[in-house]
Amino acid sequence: MRIAYSQAFTVNIIAGYLLTLLGALLSLVAAGWWVQAREWLDSGPPPPAFRALTAVAFTLFTIGIFWQLVGYLRLEYAVGW
Fold first, then answer.
1. Would you state the torsion angle of the CA atoms of residues 3, 7, 12, 16, taken in this order, to the nearest 10 degrees?
2. How far is residue 37's CA from residue 54's CA, in Å, rounded to a whole number?
3. pTM of the model
4. Radius of gyration of the chain measured on its C-alpha atoms
5. Sign of CA dihedral 34, 37, 43, 48
6. pLDDT digit string, tens, across residues 22-38
7. Number of other residues whose CB lies within 10 A of the CB of residue 72
8. Contact 47/40 with Cβ under 8 angstroms?
């Protein structure tokens, strides 16, 4: 059976990849917000919404990477490792 037709590939690796992309996109949004918000860069800590956005972005990115790793390890082709 080809790897593209494997259910483990489709469910785990593609879902993990999409989570990783979403985390990277949210990180880019946070970076744009950081560049535009010059008023609080020197005056104190960033607002809670910014900290929440960066935490969600980092969490989604990390979960996506680990989800892909689990998907690769669960493939039938990786049994011989």
1. 70
2. 15
3. 0.79
4. 18
5. negative
6. 999 999 999 999 888 87
7. 16
8. yes
